[in-house]
Structure formats: C-alpha cells, structure tokens
Amino acid sequence: MRNFPQLPRLFSSCFSSAKPRHKLTSEEPSARRRSREEWRQLNEPDLMMELVRDIAQDLDLVSLCFKILLNVGILTNGDRCSLFLIFGSGDQRFLVSKLFDVTENSQLTDMYEHKPIRIPYGKGIVGYVAESGETVNIPDAYQDERFNKAIDMQTGFRTKSILCMPV
User: What CA–CA distance (Å, rounded) separates 84 from 22?
Assistant: First the structure.
C-alpha cells in the first residue's frame, strides 16, 4: 500500500457582504464558468455530476481547492470564500490563508497575487473553528467578539455574515 504524507487540516470560510469591494479579473482566457443562476437551474443529480466532473479533471492541489471554493461560494450564495491551512505543532500552531477572497469572478492566477494572511491558532473565528472543530454560522460578524475586524480593514471588504467550518 502506498503511503501518503500527512496533509495539513483545511479550514474554509465563506463571507457575505452588503458592500462588494471589487471584482477580480484576469487577462488570461479561461474556460467559461456557469453563473449562479445557471447553477440554480440544474436539478440536484445534474448539479452534482457537473461539480464532480469539473473537480475530477484537476490534480493540482491549489487549483482543485480553488475550484471547490468557487463552487462552495456559488452553492452557499457567499460573496467570497477563503481556505486556511494549519501549520506547526503543539503551542507553535498557526493558520495561513492558502486561498483568500475567492469570488465567482476570481481567476486562479489572481490568487498568487495575494499576500498570505497568518492567524494565531485559536484566535478569531477561523482560529476558533480550527481549535474546536465546530462549524460556526454567524449572521452578523461585527456582533461576535471573536471576529477580527483588522482583516476587513486590511482588505477593504465589510464582512456581514460568516459560515466557517473545518474541512
């Protein structure tokens, strides 16, 4: 049996906002992506088949995670999604954004332009979810004391609600 290296645990967050910051674009041509409305018009078996078909064609971890986040954002009607990885061990653990601010208009090449965001383990909503293993659904991010407003100030995006879960 083949041994695989242990991968870091993954954490995903979907954010919703009343005020979009901007749309990410890329000069490179890409395959046409379905809009939210086109996804909603598919019946459940067709939708699942389309998602599996799209994801199965990709073996690159970053590209695969990007596609998954795009689809999760569309299916949850989230404005943007992010993926954080846990690094380190024991008291030296921390989270790093592998993919950040993925929107339905994002291109994979845009993701390489983002400076990774590092979050202490157990801090903020993402850190809490990483530490507890719980899924959290927060209707008003600014009313939750765990929410880190500094990320909104850094990105210029105003987060309204958050769905964050361990993957």
Answer: 22
H or E stretch at 71: helix 61-76
Q: Which long-range contacts (CB under 8 A, 24 or more apart) does 118-123 make?
A: 118/94, 119/84, 119/94, 119/95, 119/148, 120/94, 120/95, 121/86, 121/88, 121/93, 121/94, 121/95, 123/148
Q: Strand 94-102's sheet: what is its strand order?
A: 118-120, 94-102, 80-87, 10-16, 161-166, 136-138
SS3 42: coil
In whole angstroms, how far apart are CA 42 and each of 4, 53, 80?
36, 14, 22
Q: What is the DSSP letter of 91?
A: G
- Digit-coded pLDDT (tens) for 59-97: 677 888 888 888 888 888 888 999 999 999 988 999 998
* Alpha-carbon gap, residue 95 to 118, rounded angstroms: 6
Predicted TM-score of the model (pTM): 0.67
